[in-house]
Amino acid sequence: MSKKLIELKNISKSFGSNLVLDELDLYIRENEFVTLLGPSGCGKTTILRIIGGFETPDIGSVYFDGVDITKLSPNERQLNTVFQKYALFTHMTVAENIAFGLRLKKKSDSYIKDKIKYALDLVNLPGYEDRYPDSLSGGQQQRIAIARAIVNEPKVLLLDEPLGALDLKLRQEMQYELIRLKNELGITFIYVTHDQEEALTMSDTIVVMNQGYIQQIGTPESIYNEPTNAFVADFIGESNIIDGIMVRDRLVNIGGLDFECVDEGFGKNEPVDVVIRPEDVELGSPEGGHTTGTVTSIIFKGVHYEIQVESAIGINFMVQTTQNFPVGSFVGINVIPDNFQIMHKPQSEDEEILNIEDIPLKE
Amino acid sequence: MMGKALGKIYIVLVVLFMYAPIMVLIALSFNASKSRVIWGGFTLKWYRTLFESSAIISAIGTTLLLALLSAAIACIIGLTASLGIYAMKKRDYKIMLFFTNIPLLNADIVTGIALMLWFVKFMPLGFSSVLVAHVTFNIPYVILCILPKLETMDIRQFEAARDLGATSFYAFVKILIPDLMPGIFAGFFMAFTMSMDDFVITYFTKGPGVNTLSTLIYGEIRKGIKPEMYALSSLLFFIVLIMLIIVNISARDNKDKSDLAAY
């Protein structure tokens, strides 16, 4: 494991009466691609701005390579930021934009010239030196903003929803570009987004946040497959989140019907949240189903259909399948034991915040 | 078709009513005859006598100096004020903007008398008191030009400069100021023009012996209307006209540049 490059210790921050971060601890390892993921207003951008030096935490400290940098201003930190709307200097050419940081470091003209060329090659925009930012497309401006940041050879690149303003196709392209850049440069990326697909595609580590608290830290796989609570399950991909009772190890009761699962270690008859991914609900003939249901709606989504099934046990399942079941058809429902994810009900007040009903999930 | 023609006639009439008096004034300034009803042939002699009068020359000098200085000072104060107002919370912002707008709408004569009362108490009436008065009424125009520019600017550019290693002062000078320059220019020329053609406030705040073009014309006209005054008034009109043309061209150039860059 590589060393911890950035450490946030006991960070709290409020704006007016609005507590944005509450006693937050987080560390980021060298050469990691870390994504801070959460709905708007969850505090992810504030964390990034605290690391970048644009906000000072009310309490707590930021360590960079073991040194306390909490009080340093942005120009004294060895990291660079790619801003949400690129923030290119509009009255300067592309080359002048890229050279800005290097000129401040009093680098020689020939060094700067080489660096500009290198950076433009790296972001696939060779020959754009004399263009003005206004004359570039969103995707190109984004690349220039990245070039402007990386020529300074920062140890950490902070990216604040950099793909938010691009269209879907371009966004997917840029995701691959960013992964390539990260591998070529070998520097740490801290990436802020509310887009779970971006987070899953690019990250080594995802930090899922909500209302100023970290909900879960893990690899994309572990966060998708083993969400620790209902909020994470619902925010990362779509989910059926159902009330259940753990009858005993490996057996959960949902709506009066027992289902086999693989989870153990819950109390006898403990109320739990059961998460089932929509793609894990299997529909078939009524005779072969563990329970049955009636299709109430079906929507074509491209790669699959999204189907709502009103089941005999009183639960409404969301199902994703490539098969077509017309509205009104009577179907059997099966879920294999592996695909139940059982979670404790929220207990403390902090956890109560996770109540997903009150939270607007996406912008 | 009919409507279009009527529309054109209407426009011509409007423009005629607005500018005919000035056209007559300008025509009379080139009239060799002293009479206002007889055309005595083209002449520049009224302009010549104008430039032979030391009072007029000094009034022109005072007017230009006053306009330049008051516009420049108002720009500096207006810029800092705009930055301050911009950083305010919504409510304070509105209150502040309301107060800066009062001098714009206030009757000149009220502002003039109020300033005069103030100056009589604290400083001698003279060039400096007129300058302070002009700076005072120019500041709102500058703020009015700079604040919208600041509003549409991406303030993240400033943060980006800080992020790339610039101190806040360097980022301010290198990033914010160039971006605000069109607004600052517009504010400067606006203030310059306002200072040039102000009469009422200048009249109340000037001391004896200090004359701008407008107060000089007023003083001379009271003694009797002389053709030189047509020439002087025409001159004032042309200077203001040229200023307005410069403002418009610089505004258009800015737009052209960004339009061109978009392709």
Question: How many E-type strands of chain A?
Answer: 20
Write down the overall geometry of chain A.
Answer: elongated
| Greatest interface and its participating residue counts | A-B, 26 and 21 residues
Instruction: Let me know the largest β-sheet of chain A.
Output: 6 strands, mixed
Count, helices of chain B: 11
CATH class of the domain at 69-211 and 234-258 in chain B: Mainly Alpha
Protein described:
The complex is a heterodimer of chains A (363) and B (263). By secondary structure, chain A is α+β, with helices and mostly antiparallel strands. Chain A folds into two domains: 4-225, Rossmann fold (3-Layer(aba) Sandwich); 239-349, Beta Barrel (OB fold (Dihydrolipoamide Acetyltransferase, E2P)), CATH 2.40.50. Helix content of chain A is 24%, strand content 34%. Chain A has helices at 44-52, 94-104, 109-122, 138-150, 168-185, 196-202, 220-225, 230-235, 349-352, and strands at residues 4-15, 18-29, 33-37, 59-64, 67-68, 79-82, 156-160, 188-193, 205-210, 213-218, 240-248, 251-254, 257-260, 270-276, 282-284, 291-300, 305-311, 316-321, 330-334, 341-344. In chain A, strand 9 (205-210) and strand 10 (213-218) form a beta hairpin. In chain A, helix 3 (109-122) crosses helix 4 (138-150). Chain A is elongated and about 80 Å long. The two termini of chain A are 36 Å apart. Chain B has a domain at 69-211 and 234-258: Orthogonal Bundle (MetI-like fold), CATH 1.10.3720. Chain B has helices at residues 2-29, 45-52, 54-86, 90-105, 108-122, 127-152, 156-163, 168-196, 200-205, 213-223, 227-261. Residues 258-263 of chain B have low confidence and may be disordered. The interface between A and B is medium-sized, with 26 and 21 residues.
